[in-house]
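Observation: inputs received (chain + adenosine-5'-triphosphate).
Thought: call the complex predictor directly.
Action: predict_structure
Action Input:
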Amino acid sequence: MVETFNIGLGNNDTQTRKRAEFDFSSFWAEQAKKLDWFDDWDVTLDWNPPFAKWFVGGKINASYNALDVHQKTKSKKTAIFWEGEDGTSRNIAYEEMWIMVQKFANALKSLGVKKGDRVTIYLPMVPELPISMLACARIGATHTVVFSGFSATSLADRIEDSKSKIVITADGGFRRGSVVELKSVVDEAIANNDSVQNVIILERTKTPIKKNPRDLLWSDLMNSSSDDCPAEKLDSTHPLFILYTSGTTGKPKGVLHGTGGYLTHVHSTFGWAFDIKDSDVFFCTADIGWVTGHSYVAYGPLLHGATQVIYEGAPDYPSPSRMWEILQKYKVTIFYTTPTALRMFMKFGDDIPNSFDLSSLRLLGTVGEPINPEVWKWYYKTIGKEKCPIIDTWWQTETGGMLISPLPGIETIPLKPGSGTLPIPGVDIAVVDEEGNDVKPNTKGYLVIRKPWPGMLLTLWGDDTKYQTVYWSKYKNCYYPGDYAIKDEDGYFWLLGRADDVLKVAGHRIGTAELESSIVSHHDVAESAVCGIPDAIKGEVIIAFVVLKEGISKSEDILRKEIVSEIRNGVGPIATPEQIYFVSKLPKTRSGKIMRRLLKAIASKEKIGDVSTLEDGAAVNEVQSAFDELQKSINKN
Ligand code: ATP
Ligand code: MG
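Observation:
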């Protein structure tokens, strides 16, 4: 029996869904009108599969909608409460942000940046990061933000691929108390690059830098630029940004997003999902280097004229209580984070969050991976004190914004821990079999999207063919996200992990999320990842990697037996793993997602492949050595 939670914020707008069902394209046109357009569009949707153009003929500007529109009513309102890792803080009002963006936009213009040029942004989580993005958007340059934790090689690949004219970086960034020298990474990345004309350096850490002829200081440019830069009137389909995916499944893909459709999607979902009010203090922990940070840090909150907190550093630095200190300090009302972060907080124990005043919270959210019901309930009780709805939001870099999520801003529906609930209005999502037929309720299958939606990617940068093959070739005229799922009898969606990671054991198909959830429901387990490896008799056998909570002293043999019985009860005897390995961490991407393909490679003694997006190389070595050790002890017996 699935436990449900009847918690909502009292909103009950049944009209939104009704109108969306009646005619999805005029529904989206209605939502688009909530933004400020210079010119109306002629065609709402030009659908030439697999290419969708939204609001064709319309003229709009993202920076104008994020800043200019608020100047009459909210110029003194805080746009960003910025919290540095070193404890420094800044409070930036909408007017101040508007002025900085215009100055920086003029600086870019003075360097010859034109509409359609690409600009790579490689900055830590400082206000100048969204400011740079908005400055690009203001003049029609396409920004491509690269997460500041990436190495020179990963950065070089992305600069090369996007043919950027300008790179914006900082002398350094703070991470866990030490300085990461970003400028020297850029130097290495562009040593042999001739598309980059200038590098702009923000002085954040005051670390000495080597100055090359093409280098310019952020402060010098700002001092010499005027603060009047009217926003360009851009086509709705004008490319706003390129963003490379996390790389969980392989080499990152350069996802290209447009302007009018993307903004409509982000503006709508930010309001529906977060029920945003003028008095709210929103805090999303995602780095702007990922899509969550684009849609729900850089754009969503600003489009709504909301106040948000941006934190520069590691969530557990200098202590495991850092997040809760920030929530208490800024009286955060809406908190949006990842299952990975939650599992880490949970591992530290309840005493830490319990010693802070979190009573300002009214809504909680998660994104990025399936959330185990066990972790959902912990979030609900320990952080939300059983009064905050939790929105489990499913989406991808490619989708631009949320596609499946509870929407407390418009409706109150029962929540089921581990389910993202329903698709957002105006989006048609189904679960199908190999042939593309709808499967019966409660049957596993592949997630597909059957109609275009406004936040949909335009294409993969410079590679229409790959765009077509990756997303549109498995099913005719249906977008294939690559995820495995169930739709239950109430129409709720349960995401079961990547279709590529599905385990096939003795003719049964098991999603990684189902199995990992039942392992994590063991009281002593903090995290788990499972993968299948080829087996001559069974086709595939299951291997589980388990991270325990702090201070567990039980023997591994007892734990193994208990975990197996948890799985037999939860999923069934068929899912009993062949082996269970205890490790102290799991290999994760820089965005915090577990990289199961690595576990699989190690366990099947295959080549590991591209690990450029890996969070901590040590985790791979650790998994490898835990595996080697166990292998030895098994061979001995
Ligand atoms: P790549 O495509 O390069 O392998 P990636 O898919 O990890 O990288 P993202 O676009 O950041 O890059 O992640 C989107 C994926 O994250 C989804 O396809 C899904 O597998 C997973 N995901 C996101 N949100 C949720 C959620 N709420 N529940 C379950 N899975 C989620
Ligand atoms: Mg993906």
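Thought: report the result.
Final Answer: Residues 245, 249, 396, 482 surround magnesium ion (ligand 2) (CB under 6 Å). The mean pLDDT is 95.
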